[in-house]
Amino acid sequence: MIHSTPFDTALVAHIRATARQLGFSQIGVSGVDLRSAEPGLLAWLERGFHGDMHYMTSHGLKRARPAELVPGTVSVITARMDYLPATAPDDWSAQELGRLQQSGEGIVSLYARGRDYHKVLRGRLQKLADAIVLQAGPLGYRVFTDSAPVLEAELAVRSGQGWRGKHTLVLNREAGSMFFLGEIYVDRALPESVPVQDHCGSCSACMDVCPTRAIVAPYRLDARRCISYLTIEHAGSIPLELRPLMGNHIYGCDDCQLVCPWNKFAKRATLPDFDGRAHLSGQGLCHLLDWTEAQFLQYTEGGPIRRIGHERWLRNVAVALGNALRNEPDSTLRQSMHDALQRRAAHESALVREHVQWALEQNTTLG
What we know:
- The protein is of the alpha+beta class.
- The chain is about 40% helix and about 10% strand.
- It has 15 helices and ten strands.
- A four-stranded antiparallel β-sheet has the order 1-2-7-4, sandwiched between helices. It has a two-stranded parallel sheet with strand order 3-10.
- It is elongated, with a radius of gyration of 22 Å.
- The termini are far apart.
């Protein structure tokens, strides 16, 4: 346990005040002894639940050992930033759930409709670190925003940001789970925050709603089945048995968060960076499949979607169109979907062609 000085306590108060000015919602401090998390991490990796995310294993246990990842680290400052768009209506979760029933519309996760959070948080965390140096003097530090082998959720929980929900995301009683996390590893001993209790109780809403049953047990996620993983991290062919379960999700999935009772307390973002872009919300799948690579790059500029590239974008949209074709009762709309897929049937990418062909095969009413 770190024994803090009055100056250290005052410094943390200063950090919190500065963080608020930068748009952060909460600041916490964790120690660096994460040994108790190592068995769970190793078991998760040994089961192969990380899928193609090989970076999860490339750094070994450094993920759970901050002082090895960044030598000299004594404390970790954790930061939380709400991202629910400021324009979100009071019944935002009900509206988002309703959009999942509109099979002809492509659904992008809420967090991905605005600016790339990596860029937003990294810049703000750097400004926060600069402010700490001005207040406290020379400081060894490193900023992280979901960009290195860091156990973000574990550090967030240990620093009082919330508790780990059964879907494995961090939950906060005052803010639900609609927030981003970031960290600053520092070589200065700071007073640690007090962790909070788990408040999930007997609720299993997140587990019950998951379309692909990726939450294989409470607090255990098989990423290989997660729609967010399949549409973002996975670079190859999407498993045949999972395609029909993906519905109209084309980038990420918010289902487990939309049904979580704690998200009735989700807070609106204070930064305009997370406001949704028109091209990424309420768009028909046929229109999205017709995007040229130039249009894809234009509409996703500065956002997180761009990193998957046009090829995987078309793969994802093709799967969603296949699911829409199978369920759409209107013959005119089915024909439009069929025609849109046919326009991509001879695409130069074998990956795109494969998923387009699968999608066409879901249309059992047209030749």
